[in-house]
Amino acid sequence: xxxxxxxxxxxxxxxxxxxxxxxxxxxxxxxxxxxxxxxxxxxxxxxxxxxxxxxxxxxxxxxxxxxxxxxxxxxxxxxxxxxxxxxxxxxxxxxxxxxxxxxxxxxxxxxxxxxxxxxxxxxxxxxxxxxxxxxxxxxxxxxxxxxxxxxxxxxxxxxxxxxxxxxxxxxxxxxxxxxxxxxxxxxxxxxxxxxxxxxxxxxxxxxxxxxxxxxxxxxxxxxxxxxxxxxxxxxxxxxxxxxxx
Length: 245
Known about the structure:
This protein is of the alpha+beta class. Helices cover 37% and strands 21% of the residues. A seven-stranded antiparallel beta sheet has the order 5-8-9-3-2-1-10. Helix 1 packs antiparallel against helix 2. The termini are far apart.
């Protein structure tokens, strides 16, 4: 049994076949029951099927277009250029100064700390050439931790060298751990693409993730510069930062 065969619902090609089928049925009132019109009927079925497939594809395309326009409108309506960043929402910014070079510690409420370059670090103006976690006596990238307690992680002190950063100017900066804590992981992506430090948003270009002990957290925060203190440091700095030796 066919679907509605009204002419306005079908293509000219299918309408022609439908008319031929109707004429066959009218001209062969008895023979139609023994299959004399079956060949035309098969053609009609195939034509209607091709119409249905084409119609479904067109409907899907229109649906995708509507969804795309809807999503675009939602994004336009919801976008706020002043919406706080991930760092603004979930981290507190602290800073550590070593050999007149500033480093950023992004402190999460769960104690996780991301070690990054501060915006004023001279590596940004000199250009990043390479990053290595092989600091001579140990390769930090070989650090392995297990379980929720992060067992096996290296215990680092604030002055411990975490990584070596070489700039296009030929200077090498020893990236300090900035805090006392357990090394959870290092950002090995910086080894193959050190220029990530210059391209990614704040926090994404971290050198490592450290986890301090709960008992040490208050002391760690007190030992670091707050955002306000760091801003004062940058304003009051009279001479350009020098690389560590």
